[in-house]
Amino acid sequence: MENYLHIENLTKSFGEKPLFEDITFDINKYEKVALIAKNGTGKSTLINIISGKDIADSGKIVINKKISVGFLPQEPIFDGSKTVIEQVFTSSDKIISAVKEYEKAMDSEDSKRIEEAVGKMDLLEAWDYESNIKQILNKLKIFDLNQPVSELSGGQKKRLSLANTLINNPDFLILDEPTNHLDYEMIEYLEEYLTKSHITLFIVTHDRYFLDKVCNKIIEIDNGTIFTYTGNYAHFLEKREERITQTYAEIEKAKNLYKKEAVWMNRMPQARATKAKHRIDNFYKVKEQAEQKIDDSKININIESKRLGKKVIDIFNISKSYSDKVLIKDFSYKFDKLEKIGIIGNNGSGKSTLLNIITEQIKPDSGYLEIGATVQIGYYRQEGLDLDDNRIVIEVIKDIAEVINLGKNYSLSAAQFLEYFLFPRTMHYNEVANLSGGEKRRLYLMTILMKSPNFLILDEPTNDLDIMTLNILEEYLNNFGGTILIVSHDRYFTDKVADTLFVLEENGYISHFPGNYTNYIEHIKEKEKLKTKEKNKTKVVQEKSKQNYSNRLSYKEKLEFETLEKNIEKLNIEKTELEEKLNQSGLSNEEYSENSKKYSGILEEIDEKEFRWLELSEKTT
Question: Which residues contact 216 (CB under 8 A, 6 or more apart)?
C-alpha cells in the first residue's frame, strides 16, 4: 500500500521536559489514524511538526510528494481584514477560483460578470464541485460569505477553518481536535463525511464516539513509546488492557530473574570474571526491565461536596433575548438534589446564556430565580481559563488553600493535591505558561473542584482534556453528591454523566427530556419515522381522495348521464313500437324495408348510448 507519511526516530523536548523520544510509525493510503496520549505528552506538538509549524530535535519525517495535504489546527489564525468568502477560497486551484468568482459575481448582480463566471464554470464543469462546497458550508452553518473574519467568534473561526480544509479536498488530512466548537449535528455530518470519503486521515480528538466511528487505526504514545492498534476505539481499549496486563507479567518475571542474577553478580569479582560476558550484559538488561514503571496513575477524585439542603435552585418563567433573537422563553424548573442534567442545542441557541443566568452572571429580561441557602455553585466556564501565565503551578493552588479537605478526616497539602491530579513534583514550580492546553484545563478544573461545590456547572469541560482524564472525571461526576448541569458537545461524555436533558429549541423554548443523549437521538429518529409514516399515510389518503375526486362525475358529465337515461328509455319505447309494426301483417315491402332500417339504427344507437351510460355509471360508484 502506498505510504503517505513516514516518521522515523523522532525526538522532541520542551525545555528539559521530554515529550517523546525515538518514535517511529507510518501512515498509508486510505488509513484513518487517531493519536491518543495523555495531556502534555506532545500530541499537538507532533501534529505541528508534521505540518511544518514546529521542528523536531532529531529524527526524520517524510511526506509523499505526490499528494496534497490539508491541516486543521486546534486554534486557527486568520487575517481579520478578509471576508469569509476570501478566506474559504484561498486555494489557487482553478475550479475553486472559478467557484469563488461565481459567488462574487452573483452577489454583484453584474449581468456581464455573471455571464462570464457561468461560462467559466461550464468550461471547467465545476457545478458539481460548487454544489459540494455549498453543502459543506451549509452543514457547518456558514451562510454569510461577505462577513468580515474579524467579526467571527472562536467557534465560527474553527468551523470556517474546517470548511476551508474540506473544500480543498486534500489526499491527506491532518486534524487537531476537529470536533471542538461543533454542535452534535455538525459532528455527525463530519463523521459521515470522513467515513464515506477515501481520504487518508491523521487526527487528534477526545471524542470517543467519533474515534469509534471514523478511525481504523490508533497510535498511542505511552511513557514516550509508540504502540499501534489496528481497529477502532473499542478495539483499542481491549488491546491496550491486554498490553498493560502482559507488561505487568513481564516486569514481574524480570524481577524474579533479577533477584537470582543479582546474587550471582554480587559474588567475588574473580568468580564473575570467569563467566560469559553476555550474562553480565544480560543482567543489566534484566535490571532495566525489572525497574520499569508503568505510568497507569489515575486521578481518583473523591473531593467531598458541601451538604445540600432541600431547596436547590427554583427558576420561574425566565426569558432572555438579544436584539430580535429570542434565546430563552418563559422557562421554569425546580432542581432536585443529585440531578445530573445535560443541556443540548445548536450553537447560538442559548446554552451558555442559560448557565450565566443560573449563576447570576447576567440577568433575565423577565422572570426570576430562588437559590437555596446551602447551595455552593462551582462554575467551570468555557471561556473562564484566566490563569496567570506568570504564576507557578503550586501557587495557583495555594492561593485557594494550603490544605485541601477530601472528607472523612482525609486531607492533602497543595503539593500532594497536584500529584493527585497527575502533576509530578518536577512540574510544581513550572510557570503556567509552560503547561499544555490540556494541563491548563486540568489545573483550572482543580481550582473549581477544590472549593467543594454542591451544585456543579460545567460548560464544555471536555475541550483539551485527554481521554484518560475524561474517564476519571466521568467516574467522579457519577459519584458526585450534588446537582450537576453540563454543556458538552462530547456525546460520549454527555451519555456517561447526564441522565436527563434540557433541549433548547430554535424558538427559545426549553423542553425537558427524561433520558441521556443516545436515548434522545433514538427518540428523535423514532419521531421522524412516525412523522414520515404519517406523511406517507396522508399522501396515500390524498392520492386516494384525488383519485376518488377524479372518478366523480363533472357537472357536464352529470347532465350527459341524466340525458342518456332519458334517451335510452325513449329509444327503447321506439324500438318496442317498431317491433310491433314489423310484426303486423299487411305491410308493403317498402314499409317493411323502411321500418327495418329504422329498427337497426335504433339498436345501434341504443348499444352506443348504453355503453357510454355504463362508463359514466362507474364514476358514480
Answer: 31, 32, 33, 230, 231, 232
Structural domain of residue 420, as residue ranges? Answer: 313-515
Q: C-alpha cell of 599?
A: 329498427
- pLDDT tens, 160-188? 889 888 888 899 999 998 988 788 888 88
**Is residue 63 pLDDT above 60, yes or no?**
yes
CA pair distance 88, 86, nearest whole angstrom: 6
* Long-range CB pairs of 354-361, under 8 A, 24+ apart, other chains included: 354/327, 354/328, 354/502, 354/504, 354/510, 355/379, 355/457, 355/459, 355/485, 355/487, 357/318, 357/320, 357/328, 358/313, 358/315, 358/457, 358/485, 359/457
Note the pLDDT of residue 262: 67
Grid cell of 102 as nine digits: 461565481
Same domain, 3 and 115: no
Q: What is the mean pLDDT of the chain?
A: 83
Tell me the backbone φ, ψ of residue 423, rounded to 5 degrees: -105, 100
Residue 113 belongs to what H/E stretch?
helix 111-124
Q: For 170-201, b where at least 16 C-beta lie within 10 A, e where not — what string?
A: bbbbbbbbbbbbbbbebbbbbbeebeeeebbb
Cα gap 578→566, rounded to integer Å: 18
Task: Compute, in degrees rounded to 10, the torsion defined by CA atoms 521, 523, 524, 527.
Answer: 160
Q: Are residues 406 and 454 in the same domain?
A: yes
Does 368 map to a domain?
yes
Name, in order, each residue with C-beta under 8 angstroms of 123's C-beta and a sequence gap of 6 or more: none
Phi, psi of 340 (to 5 degrees): -125, 105
Residue with cell 467571527: 152
Four-point Cα dihedral 361, 363, 368, 371, nearest 10: 10
Among the ranges 92-96, 326-330, 611-615, which has the highest mean pLDDT value?
A: 326-330
When mean pLDDT is compared across 23-27, 295-299, 442-446, the lowest value belongs to 295-299
CB neighbour list of residue 417: distance below 8 Å, 6 or more residues apart? 397, 404, 446, 450
pLDDT at 268: 45
For the chain, give me the number of helices (H) and strands (E)? 20, 20
One DSSP character per residue, 421-474 reads TT--GGGTTSBGGGS-HHHHHHHHHHHHHTT--SEEEEESTTTT--HHHHHHHH
pLDDT at 549: 46
Helix, strand, coil content of the chain in percent (nearest 5)? 50, 20, 30
Q: Tell me which of 235, 253, 271 is where a domain ends.
A: 253
Residues 156 and 205 in one domain: yes
- Which residue would you say has higher pLDDT here, 278 or 190? 190
Q: What H or E segment, with its residue span, contains residue 368?
A: strand 366-371
| CATH code, domain with 215 | 3.40.50.300
- With CA atoms as reference, report the closest residue to 199 among 229, 228, 226, 175: 175
Cβ–Cβ contacts within 10 Å for residue 602, how many?
20
Q: What is the pTM of this model?
A: 0.68
Instruction: Give the distance, in angstroms, between the CA of residue 98 and the centroid of all CA atoms in the same chain.
Output: 31
Whole-angstrom CA distances from 39 to 35, 441, 444 are: 12, 10, 14
Location of C-alpha cell 503551578: 393
Find, among 108, 83, 47, the residue nearest to 160 by Cα.
83
The dihedrals phi and psi of 329, each to the nearest 5 degrees, come to -130, 115
How far apart CA 494 and CA 500 sit, in angstroms, is: 10
